[in-house]
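Friendly challenge for the regulars: who can give me the C-alpha cells for this chain first? No prize, just bragging rights.
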Amino acid sequence: MTGPETPRPGPETPRPGTRADGSHDDDSLAELGYKPELKRTLGNFHTFAAGISYISILTGTFQLFYFGIAHGGPAYWWSWPMVFFGQLMVALCFCELAARYPVAGSVYNWAKKLGGPHIGWLGGWMMLTATMVSLSAVALAYQVTLPQISSWFQFIGDGTGKSAAENAVLLGTVLIAFTTLVNAFGVKLMARINSAGVAIELIAAIVLILLLAAHVTRGPDVVTDTFGLGKGENLGYFGAFLTASLASAYVMYGFDTASSLGEESKDPGRNAPRAILRALVASFLIGGLILLFALMSVPNLQAEQLKVDGLQYVVLSTLGSTVGQIVLWCVVIAITVCELAVHTAGIRLAFAMARDNNLPAASLLAKVSPRFQTPVLPAVIIGLVAVGILVINVNQPQIFSVITSIAIIMIYLAYLSVTLPMLVQRLRGNWTPAKGKFSLGKFGIPVNALAVLWGFAMSLNLAWPRAAVYNATGPQHWYLRWGAFLFIGVVALGGFAYYWFVQRKRTGVLAMHAAVQPGGGTPGGAGHPTP
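First reply, four minutes later:
Bragging rights claimed.
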C-alpha cells in the first residue's frame, strides 16, 4: 500500500546520487528497499526505443494483418483505434507509476507495492511465463518473412507442412541465440543495437506509408467493408469483429519496457512516462496509417493471398519485388529488435523477482556481472527456455498457437494485477503521485477505472474458446478450444501453490541487494521481508 509521500530533503542536505539538476535517480529504489547496482547509461531515445521495439509495429502488423482481414474484412481496421484507447488508459496509469517507481521488473514491483507481495508475485510470475513464450512466438516471425525474401533461407524442405515448422525452429533458435549474447554483454550494447534498429524501423515505416499512399486505388471508405462476415451468427458482424480485433490486441502491449529499464536510465522519473506515451502513440499512428494505406492500395482486395500472406502480399504486389524485398528486410530488422526488447524485459523481470528471493537460485539469478553491469544468468536461462518451447512444439503447431495466444492474455492479466490494486488504493485515498512529475490529477479514478474495465473485457475476448483461434485446423479438440482457461489455470494455480508453500516463507530483499540505512544496516536480509 502506498501512503503519502515523505518530504524530500532540501538542497542543504544532498543525497548520494544527486545529480546537478537536483533530481534523485535512486530515491525510488531506496523507498522499495534496494540499493542501486545497474549502471545508468540510457538516455531518452534509448528508453523510447525499448518501448516501441517491444510493440514493434512492423513485426506485429506484418505477422497478423492476414488474421484481421480473414476474420473481419477491411472493417477490422477499427479495432486498431479501439485497442489503442484501451491500452492508453493502462499506459496513463503506468506513467504515474513510472514517475514514482521507475524500477526493473516494473509490473512485478508495481503490483507488489500496490497489492502486496502475493499479488506482486502472481503478476510477476504470469508476466515472466508470458515473456518466455512471447520470445519463442516472435522468433517464429522470421519464417514468415525471410523465405519470402529468398528461398535460400528455407534450409529445411520446401517450406510446406512439417518442413516449415522445422525451419521456423531453426531460424528462431538463431535469433534467440543472438539476443541472448547481446543481452549478456550488457545494456549499452543492447541499447545501441536496439536504437539503431528502431531508427531503421521508423524510417522504413514512414517510407512504406508514403509508397503505399502513392499507389492507392480506392478511398478510405474501404474500412467500412465487412466482406459480409458474421451473417447467420448470433452476434452478427460484431462477433466477427471481436475475433478480428485480436490482430490488434496481439500487437499493442509491452510499452512498460520503457520503465523496466528505469534503473539503467538517466532521470527515469521524468523520461520513463514520456517514453511510455511516445512509444504507444507513435505505434498507433504509424501502424494505423500502414494498415489504412495497405487496404487502399492493394490491387485486389478479394485476393486469397491477402488472407494468407497478409501485408507481405500487399507490399510485393503493390510495390514490386525489388522495393518489396527492401521493405521486407526492414521487417526482419524490426523482428530482430523486437526479440531483443522482449528478451531484455524478461531479464529485468527475472532479476527483480530474484532480488526479492522470489525465484529458485535467486542469489545467482540476481547477480550483476561486474564486467558487463547486467544480470547474465537470466539472459541465458530465458533464452534456453524459449528455444526449448520451440523445439517441444515443432510437431504440434496447433498447441503452439494456443500457447502463444495464451501468453498475450497472461500479459493483459499481469497488467490487471497493477491497475486493479491501483484503483483500490485510489478509492481508499492511499495513492499519491510523485510531486512535480507525471500525474493524472482529477482524472486518475476515471482513467484507472476504464483501464480495469478494458483489461477484464479484452482478457475475456482473448480467452473466448473460438475454434478460429484455438483450434483453427482439424481435428477439433475440446482442450484446445478451452486452452486459455486450462493453461492459465494451471500456470496461475500451480505457480501460486509453489509460491505459497515454498517461496512465500523466503521472500524478502536479499542482503547483497538491500539498501543501506543511515545507521549502516540493511532493511532486511534474505528470507526477511522489507518493511
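Residues 38-503 form a domain with the Amino acid/polyamine transporter I fold (CATH 1.20.1740.10). The CA atoms of residues 426 and 445 lie 7 Å apart. Your move, everyone else.
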